[in-house]
C-alpha cells in the first residue's frame, strides 16, 4: 500500500514517460513544405558542405615563410642639395622574416660621443640642485654638477633634439618603391611544398608598389603606420600540376590609428679622433608591413566524407520539426492536431487495477451471467462447411 501511495503521488506530480507517436497528416501544403526543406538540406550537404567546402578531404594547415626584396630610390633636399636614399638606406633592418619596415620620415643626431658633462635644460645655481644619477628624459643621468647655470649629465652628446616632428625630413619617392614578395609553403602531413616563385615578376601578383599597398600614404607618411598583409593559400592535392594551389590576392589592413603612428630608434657606430667611439642616432617613422600567411592543403579521405554525410543527413529531422510546429500552432485545425498528436494514457497496471475494482463491485449473479455469455458456444457441422458462432 505504501508503494502504491508513492507511485500515485509521483504520477500526480507529472512523472511520466514520453514515447513518440507517428501521425500522418494528409495535407499537400505540409507535404510540399516538408519535402522542400528536405531538398534544401540535401542540396546544402551535397553542394556546399561536401563539394564547395571540400568536405571529402582531410585538411592540413600549411606553414610557410615570406621573404621580401625592396627596390627604389628616394630623396630629400638638404642645404639646397639633393640627398639620395636608396633601398639600403630606407629599409631597416635590411632583412626581416615575414615583415618589412620602410622609412618615410626621420630625425638624425650625428656624431654623438659618450660624455660625462653633457648639458641639460635643467636650471641650477649650486650642485645640490642637481640630484646625482637622476634620470633626465630617458637621455642620460645627472652627474651632480651644476655648470653654466644648468645641470650636467652622463649621456651621449649632443643629445637628441625635441623637434622630432620636422616635416622637412619627409622622404620623396617612397610611394614608387617596389616590393617583391616571395612565399614558400609546406604541408608536413602530406610532405608537400610549393612557392610563388616565377621567372618573371608580375605587378599585382608577386610585385607591389608602396602606393598600392597603402591607399592613404600622405596621411600616414609623417607618423608612420603598421599594415597587416594577409595572403591565403588553398591547395587541392587531388589535382596535379600547376593548378594544385590557389593564392588569394593580398589584403592590406592598417592595424593602428593614423595618429598613433610607428617609430623607433637605431644607431650606426664608428670610431674617429683617437679611437673615440661615436655614433649617428636616427629616430625613424615609417611603414611596417607584417605579412600573415595562412593556408590549407586537402586530400581525399573517406572519414571526413562519412562524417559530413552523417551530420548533414541528421539535419533532415529539421523538416519534421518545422512541419510539426506549423501544424500545431499555425494551421486552422491546430486544436485538432494537438489532440491527436499528444495523448495521455495510464500504465497497464493502472488499467488492471481499474478492471479488478469494477469486477469487485459487480454482483456475483451478474458476473456468472456475464461469464456464461462469454463462454464459447458449441460448434455445429453442416453438410459442407464448418462454422463457429461468434
From TrEMBL:
Any Pfam family the entry gives: P2X_receptor
Name recorded for this polypeptide: P2X purinoceptor 5-like
InterPro entries in alphabetical order: P2X_extracellular_dom_sf, P2X_purnocptor, P2X_receptor
Region (Disordered): 354-390
Entry keyword Ion transport: yes
Keywords recorded for this protein, A-Z: Ion channel, Ion transport, Ligand-gated ion channel, Membrane, Transmembrane, Transmembrane helix, Transport, Vacuole
Family the UniProt entry places it in: Belongs to the P2X receptor family.
Major subcellular location class: membrane
An MF annotation (GO) of this entry: purinergic nucleotide receptor activity
Localisation per UniProt entry: Contractile vacuole membrane
A biological process term (GO) from this entry: regulation of calcium-mediated signaling
Spans through the membrane: 31-53, 285-307, 313-331
An example Gene Ontology CC term for this record: plasma membrane
Amino acid at each position: 500500500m505504501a508503494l502504491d501511495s508513492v507511485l500515485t503521488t509521483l504520477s500526480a506530480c507529472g512523472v511520466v514517460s514520453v514515447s513518440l507517436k507517428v501521425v500522418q497528416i494528409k495535407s499537400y501544403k505540409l507535404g510540399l513544405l516538408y519535402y522542400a526543406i528536405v531538398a534544401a538540406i540535401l542540396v546544402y550537404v551535397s553542394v556546399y558542405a561536401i563539394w564547395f567546402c571540400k568536405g571529402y578531404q582531410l585538411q592540413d594547415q600549411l606553414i610557410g615563410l615570406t621573404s621580401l626584396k625592396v627596390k627604389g630610390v628616394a630623396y630629400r633636399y638638404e642645404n639646397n642639395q639633393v640627398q639620395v636614399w636608396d633601398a639600403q638606406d630606407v629599409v631597416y633592418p635590411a632583412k626581416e622574416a615575414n615583415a618589412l619596415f620602410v622609412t618615410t620620415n626621420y630625425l638624425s643626431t650625428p656624431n654623438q660621443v659618450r660624455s660625462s658633462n653633457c648639458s641639460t635644460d635643467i636650471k641650477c645655481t649650486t650642485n645640490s640642485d642637481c640630484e646625482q644619477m637622476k634620470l633626465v628624459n630617458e637621455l642620460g643621468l645627472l652627474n651632480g654638477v651644476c655648470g653654466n647655470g644648468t645641470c650636467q649629465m652622463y649621456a651621449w652628446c649632443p643629445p637628441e633634439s625635441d623637434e622630432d616632428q620636422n616635416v622637412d625630413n619627409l622622404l620623396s619617392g617612397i610611394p614608387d618603391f617596389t616590393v617583391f614578395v616571395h612565399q614558400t609553403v609546406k604541408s608536413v602531413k602530406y610532405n608537400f611544398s610549393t612557392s610563388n616563385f616565377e621567372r618573371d615578376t608580375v605587378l599585382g601578383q608577386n610585385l607591389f608598389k608602396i602606393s598600392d599597398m597603402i591607399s592613404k600614404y600622405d596621411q600616414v607618411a609623417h607618423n608612420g603606420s603598421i599594415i597587416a598583409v594577409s595572403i591565403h593559400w588553398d591547395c587541392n592535392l587531388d589535382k596535379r600540376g600547376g593548378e594544385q594551389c590557389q593564392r588569394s590576392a593580398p589584403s592590406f589592413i592598417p592595424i593602428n590609428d593614423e595618429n598613433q603612428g610607428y617609430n623607433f630608434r637605431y644607431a650606426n657606430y664608428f670610431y674617429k679622433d683617437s679611437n673615440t667611439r661615436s655614433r649617428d642616432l636616427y629616430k625613424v617613422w615609417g611603414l611596417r608591413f607584417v605579412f600573415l600567411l595562412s593556408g590549407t592543403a586537402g586530400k581525399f579521405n573517406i572519414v571526413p566524407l562519412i562524417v559530413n554525410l552523417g551530420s548533414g543527413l541528421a539535419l533532415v529531422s529539421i523538416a519534421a520539426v518545422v512541419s510539426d510546429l506549423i501544424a500545431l500552432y499555425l494551421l486552422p485545425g491546430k486544436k485538432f492536431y494537438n489532440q491527436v498528436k499528444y495523448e495521455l494514457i495510464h500504465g497497464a497496471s493502472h488499467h488492471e487495477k481499474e478492471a479488478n475494482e469494477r469486477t469487485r463491485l459487480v454482483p456475483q449473479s451478474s458476473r456468472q451471467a456475464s461469464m456464461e455469455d462469454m463462454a464459447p458456444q458449441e460448434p455445429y457441422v453442416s453438410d459442407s462447411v464448418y462454422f463457429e458462432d461468434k
